Amino acid sequence: MKVYLDNNATTMVDPAVTEAMIPYFSEIYGNPNSLHTFGTASHPAITKAINQMYKGIGASDKDDIIFTSCATEANNWVLKSVWIDKILHSDKNHIVTTEIEHPSVLSTCKFLEDQGVKVTYLPVNDQGIVEAHTVKAFITEKTALVSIMWANNETGMIFPIQEIGEICREKGVLFHTDGVQAVGKIPVNMQEVYVDFMSMSAHKFHGPKGIGALYIKNSQHLTPLLHGGEHMGGRRSGTLNVPYIVGMGQALEMATTNMEEKIAMIAAKRNRLEDALLGALEDVMVVGDRANRTPNTILISIRGVEGEGMLWDLNNALIGASTGSACASESLEANTVMLAIGADNELAHTGIRLSLSRFTTDEEIDYVIERFENAVKRLRAISSSYAIVQPTAGGATLACHIHH
Amino acid sequence: MAKNDLLGGSLWDQYSNKVTTLMNNPQNQGEITQEECDAAGHTLIVADFGAESCGDAVRLYWEVDPASDTIVNSKFKSFGCGTAIASSDMMAELCIGKTVQQAVKITNIDVEMSLRDTPETPAVPPQKMHCSVMAYDVIKKAAGLYLGVDEASFEDEIIVCECARVSLGTLREVIKLNDLKSIEQITDYTKAGGFCKSCIKPGGHEAREYYLVDILADVRREMDEEKMRHAADAGSHGDFEGMTLVQKIKAIDSVVDESIRQFLIMDGGNMEVIDIKDSPDYIDVYIRYLGACNGCASSSTGTLYAIEATLKEKLSSKIRVLPI
Questions:
Q1: Which residues on chain A are in Cβ contact (under 8 Å) with B83?
Q2: Are A221 and A348 in a shared domain?
Q3: Structural domains in chain B?
Q4: Bridge pairing between strands A319-320 and A3-4
Q5: Are B77 and A348 a contacting pair at CB < 8 A?
Q6: Is A400 considered catalytic here?
Q7: Mean pLDDT of A115-125
Q8: Which domain holds residue A95?
């Protein structure tokens, strides 16, 4: 059996989405900006996708949802253009974000720091979230933008976006949220929160890769990142990616229809898996309260088992999971989220993320429970953390000399 | 970056078959107990290196025959990724049958070479070389425990990059001989810094005693100082072209004072040296006329030629004098 439990990295395109996209490759292929019927033939489908998007996130008709190539583009767009609009040309110079944002936010912030912008990276609490009062405490008169993710990719923990939005409104500061891990997974309604900009990505909710979107409240000004033709009202140039726009709209509609049911179904499987692992294995820990977590995510730490080793064994069992731990990444860094939540350093290299989707079956969960336990048993048998014979006098390691 | 780097490739695809096999089935995984050693009249040595909080930890067990100092059995336990387990396994394998004194000579490079499928293809990708370094360190520790000496005594030189085993002495020499100016050049010449990158600058995976950035800065500073000394020597030997800028200005001033200024003053004028610019073909001396010289017709013809000729004769034929 092959089991894919890495749905926070990307998801399978729902076959119904693929089907909706197909006609817009070789049948209806005109440029939507052309005057002839080859071009205009695509308009109904684009209009439908736009409607699906607005409905999917509860956007008002006064708002903009601009399609982009990915959420990385949307995140770059907001950060760089707020810098141009509000920092270069005013006396503001400060951005507030968190330590555990996606690299497309963190790297862009680092880039802006090189340009002289001051950036505050807020720490998270032991639940892996930033509390609203922390955000409030760090907003100053110089703050131009607050950028905080809606849900975290590694832990699934959901941030208090409603409260943070209220604080930003009170303080008169722009608020951007990276909604990539929230949209399509949990209810996201722009009528219930005060958010100026929100980034989204289709491939996280069974849409295609290569398409994302940026929600812009009240169609407010934001200097374009991509200049060119007058596509999407000149806000984001580049010929409209018609089949992918159709796919994104279709995928969001499918993810948000009967959402409570879908959430309950995924959460039931996730909870069963989580309970089974916590019950069967000693010295394991799951990060964050279930109630405040995206319904599909488990970040589990297994004492004595290094993350990449665990991934290796799971992969041998044809299970796809993920880790942010040292040895699996180029940078050899410890899992930043694990460190940020203040987990023991020992646990920072032991995180395994399992992320389900609405396509995950009960049989798959049973299979994963069995194979996961086997992998832990094998690796703990090798692990020095579980060795019995103690070092010769003077032979113990005194301290770790590795930076995090 | 080029075509072959665009996708990045899979980390795991870069592991050798030996690494993969040992990761799945380590041969020397396990523990050796005091009882086993006592029964055979052998000595048990158990050494740790690394810690879980580092992301890597290994415990090495040796059963040593005290009559010959031979390691008759070796096992390991490892908290680490696949390559750490495979490296530890190969390390234990390499120790078996060797004397402690021979085992101490095993380096991480020996471990990595033994894990290769073919001699020319690395067993692990660059960032994983670090995993085999622990094997080297823990052997030193075990040997130190057995022989009752400080493990540092096995090192006859300071190793700056442990992954590529490049010493401080080698680095200093290579920088100097090849006039290296960047970390990238150092990596190209010595491989130092090309693996886990901890030794490049503070803040990497592991804290180091020496960093390439500091070594480079130190050696460059020493090279500059040497150049200065050389230039100062050149000054006293009258080698104008080898002088530093300040020395050149002083030399020109002294020639002007000795042989030129008096004639200008006689005509109610004067001059000062403003700047000097070096190029491969010329040394341009910028001067400003003062007093009566200023605006004098001869200042751009006869007087100028005289000044230039004098400086050329006394200092260098490359000198051009340019009034501003």
A1: 327
A2: no
A3: 9-156 (3.90.1010.10), 159-237 (no CATH), 240-323 (3.30.300.130)
A4: parallel
A5: no
A6: no
A7: 94
A8: 15-256
